[in-house]
Design goal:
single chain, about 350 residues, alpha/beta, Chorismate Mutase Domain, subunit A, six-stranded mixed beta sheet, five-stranded mixed beta sheet, 12 helices, about 25% strand, globular, amino-acid biosynthesis, lyase, Preph_deHydtase, prephenate dehydratase activity, isomerase
Length: about 350
């Protein structure tokens, strides 16, 4: 009886799969048609529309009847949209490499697996690839919830004409990867300095005998651990798969909510979605009350400021620029009025981009 019941449900699944395949083919055909329309326009139209994709995914999650959780619905349709977009315009996405890093994981979360991922050595290299149109977009780390900002990214945003086109919030689970037989056999641990800091307590407790060796990225750490005896790396699941390393210990980060924010950089200006963030950088001649003067309009307009960072301006000693994130889009009426007032006060003012607010999944 049980076997007969299984056959009934398997037959149903086969029939449903046929329907899903037919619908996916219809969706892909629509995507190809949209691609042809865009290619034949006299005025160039963007193929990738993150604000449109955000609206589609949120609509589907609102409609989700279960039993699949929203996280899985988002992941499945992310891949469907990625495959369909590849039919319109295959995209090259530059990112801070090497392969197997969290930055590559951020690329796949944002764009799906149907893009061509291009690992580069440095953050400036990623900016250069997008600026020179050798890549459609770039992904760079911006800040970590426990270890703070990535200063190289802030410096490049200040110098570059590229805009922020999106943010990716990636929950970070650090793993200890190695070909060693046990924790006691590990003699050296390689990782990016931020990863070492994020796992400091665990390392001190479980492998205090190991030598901690900072390297340029966790992907590089995994590459070294794959070839060096009794070495380990701190990295994610992707690095374990890519470099053929075993996971000696999973989830070794000291903070369970450890999250890294990545930025999508490009030349595209996005339309409002109703749930946006605007990033800007401002400065003024140093004088008493400078910061209050720059920030007071934000409080008066009742706009939420989600981030404030200072960096040396490098033009003069003790002069600073301030990186600010605000809720709202630069084309929203209230946000536009606020930005105009800040601009009148500042000696230097630059909007870095308005883009959909990222979600942690």
């Amino acid at each position: 009886m049980a076997n007969q019941d299984l056959l009934v449900y398997r037959d149903k699944i086969d029939a449903i799969d046929e329907q899903i395949l037919a619908l996916l083919s219809s969706r892909a055909a629509c995507a190809k048609a949209i691609g042809h329309i865009k290619q034949n326009q006299t005025v160039a139209m963007p193929f990738y529309r993150p604000e449109r994709e955000k609206a589609v995914l949120e609509r589907l999650m609102d409609m989700n009847p279960g039993p699949l959780p929203d996280k899985e619905i988002r992941r499945l349709f992310r891949e469907v949209m990625s495959a369909c977009l590849a039919l319109e315009m295959p995209m090259d996405i530059a990112y801070l490499g090497p392969e197997g890093t969290y930055t590559q994981a951020a690329v796949l979360k944002q764009f799906g697996h149907s893009v061509n991922t291009v690992p580069l050595r440095t953050i400036p290299d990623v900016f250069k690839a997008v600026q020179s149109e050798n890549a459609h977009f770039g992904i760079v780390p911006s800040e970590n919830s426990t270890e703070g900002v990535v200063t190289h990214t802030l410096d490049m945003l200040l110098q570059s004409d590229l805009r922020i086109c999106g943010e990716i919030l990636l929950r970070i689970q650090h793993n200890l990867l190695s070909n060693a037989e046990s924790l006691s056999a590990v003699k050296a641990v390689y990782a990016h300095e931020q990863a070492l800091a994020q796992c400091r307590n665990w390392l001190n407790r479980y492998i205090p005998h190991a030598d901690l060796r900072p390297v340029s990225s966790n992907g590089k750490a995994a590459e070294i651990a794959a070839t060096e005896a009794n070495a380990a790396a701190i990295a994610g699941q992707m690095a374990s798969d890519f470099y053929g390393l075993s996971i000696l210990a999973a989830g070794i980060e000291d903070e369970t909510n450890n999250t890294t924010r990545f930025l999508v950089i490009g030349n595209q200006q996005l339309t409002p979605t109703g749930d946006d963030k605007t990033s800007l950088v401002v400065s003024a001649n140093n004088h008493p009350g400078l910061l209050h003067q720059l920030l007071e309009p934000i409080a008066r307009y009742k706009v939420n400021m989600t981030r404030l960072e200072s960096r040396p301006a490098r033009q003069a000693i003790w002069e600073y620029v301030f990186f600010i994130d605000l809720e709202g889009h630069e084309h929203d009426e209230k946000t536009a009025s606020l930005l105009a007032e800040i601009k009148r006060t500042a000696s230097f003012f630059k909007v870095l981009g308005s883009y959909p607010v990222g979600t942690v999944f």
